[in-house]
Design goal:
mainly alpha, 3 domains, three-stranded antiparallel sheet, 16 helices, PCI_dom, proteasome
Amino acid sequence: MRHPLGTVGQFWLFYRIADAEENLGESEVREAHLAKSLFYIRIGDKEKALEQLKVTEGKTVAVGQRMDLVFYTLQLAFFYMDFDLISKSIDKAKNLFEEGGDWERKNRLKVYEGLYCMSSRNFKKAADLFLDSISTFTTYELFPYDTFIFYTVLTSIISLDRVSLKKKVVDAPEILTVIGKIQYLSEFLNSLYDCQYKSFFSAFAGLTEQIKLDRYLHPHFRYYMREVRTVVYSQFLESYKSVTIEAMAKAFGVTVDFIDMELSRFISAGKLHCKIDKVAGVLETNRPDAKNALYQATIKQGDFLLNRIQKLSRVIDL
């Protein structure tokens, strides 16, 4: 089905391009082609928009203007969730920056790349890119600043260690000015850092619907839920060598059976370093010793190196 303004709009754009080519200069011709590109983007005609953006790029010399065309392509790609086009466009933008480019556009690209990383489940890199862009955010064409802070907090919680979370997120003035506007988010962040696990679970339940309905987070909803619970359970268990299941259930405001079932799944998946003594009703942590882990890794790498040397010596002998 044609867009209701499609025919009239295209006629006017063709006239504008023809008039610019006949009577005006190269700059006006480029602007006319850009207007046609933006028209196709606005009506959601992906193929024609990409084709016209390519034509416009051929008439564009300045690096900054070529970067803007990449941003238009990225907006279209995110609308259609075309991850292949997003990846190629981000690589293209980075190559353009090697030719030059201002800081404002570089900072905008960080937000685009952060959104791509979040959408492709690379939450660690997404958090780093979002945090780098907090004080320079201007990418309102993607989402408002409140949404940007929402993504920043969610990705940071499952990516940063406790010290970094405090420094970069909990105490960040840019986040503090906005976080109260987003329901449950402040309680979600602060109760985790303050080890108020009942409040954390309550806030977490309040946020789940918002996460589930988000177009970028929805495909990763179950994964994100598991990662958050891994973080909070690990944080609780770090304080103990052993703790009763009942005490943990009380701290989280849930039943003993729920905690038992939850931890069983996470332990079997290798997400938590502890074991359950069902008879005694106790959880015993068995976190790997850092020095011992380093020692084992050194032995393993040494054996690998010796095997390679032996193979090499046999080849030399031949």
